[in-house]
């Protein structure tokens, strides 16, 4: 009975105060979600059922991570995923500044648009490798191609993507990777380079 009381006290203090924040975050990130209340309830239930609950002190982060993992599991089952959804899922778990989140989302959407312009075989090979993390051999087997052909498709896709990013940067817009490199170089006393 004492362990049940201890769990309830932990839940009320550590998890329950973040229920509304989780609901609002998921609603903003995935506005077309019909089963929002079910998802939030399931995340709350899973948090309550945590075996070693007394080790969890950051309830908000833990609850948001549970919801994020649940959505990722759904996406894996559906086997249909857009890059913008992947970026949106990261926003559930990360609680950084709004400007950085919006910039990252915009960059991912630009990247998705670039990928959509690739030839079909290049695009498919690239997505299987970079998004689904399949080996080149697995991709070759799935696509009915040789390993060297798959390598060429992935290389061609990467080159076209980097060229498109370069054109975007030439227009005066920066990508966050460029800014991260610049920040790292500034800390070390050097200058940023994109070569």
UniProtKB/TrEMBL annotation:
UniProt-recorded Gene Ontology molecular function terms = DNA binding; sigma factor activity
Which stretches make up the RNA polymerase sigma factor 70 region 4 type domain? 109-160
- Highest taxon listed in the record's lineage: Bacteria
What keywords does the record list, in alphabetical order? Sigma factor, Transcription, Transcription regulation
Stretches assigned to coiled coil: none
Q: What InterPro entries would the database entry show?
A: RNA_pol_sigma-70-like, RNA_pol_sigma-70_dom, RNA_pol_sigma70_r2, RNA_pol_sigma70_r4_t2, RNA_pol_sigma_r2, RNA_pol_sigma_r3/r4-like, WH-like_DNA-bd_sf
Q: Name one GO biological process term.
A: DNA-templated transcription initiation
Which range is the signal sequence, renumbered to this chain? none
RNA polymerase sigma-70 region domain ranges (all copies): 18-78
Show the SUPFAM superfamilies listed in the entry. Answer: Sigma2 domain of RNA polymerase sigma factors (SSF88946), Sigma3 and sigma4 domains of RNA polymerase sigma factors (SSF88659)
Q: Which family does it belong to?
A: Belongs to the sigma-70 factor family. ECF subfamily.
Q: Which PANTHER family match?
A: RNA POLYMERASE ECF-TYPE SIGMA FACTO (PTHR43133), RNA POLYMERASE SIGMA FACTOR FECI-RELATED (PTHR43133:SF63)
- Return the protein name: Sigma-70 family RNA polymerase sigma factor
């Amino acid at each position: 009975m004492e362990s049940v009381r201890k769990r309830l006290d932990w839940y009320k203090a550590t998890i329950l105060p973040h229920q509304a924040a989780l609901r609002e975050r998921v609603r903003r990130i995935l506005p077309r979600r019909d089963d929002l209340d079910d998802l939030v309830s399931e995340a709350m239930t899973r948090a309550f059922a945590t075996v070693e609950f007394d080790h969890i002190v950051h309830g908000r982060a833990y609850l948001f991570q549970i919801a994020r993992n649940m959505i990722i599991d759904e996406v894996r089952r559906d086997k249909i995923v857009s890059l913008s959804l992947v970026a949106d899922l990261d926003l559930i778990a990360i609680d950084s500044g709004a400007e950085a989140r919006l910039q990252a989302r915009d960059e991912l959407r630009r990247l998705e648009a670039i990928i959509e312009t690739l030839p079909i075989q290049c695009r498919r090979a690239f997505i299987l490798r970079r998004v689904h993390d399949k080996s080149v051999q697995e991709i070759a087997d799935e696509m009915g191609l040789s390993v060297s052909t798959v390598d060429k498709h992935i290389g061609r896709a990467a080159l076209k993507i980097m060229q498109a990013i370069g054109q975007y940067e030439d227009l005066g817009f920066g990508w966050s990777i460029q800014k991260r490199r610049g920040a790292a170089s500034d800390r070390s006393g050097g200058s940023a380079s994109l070569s």
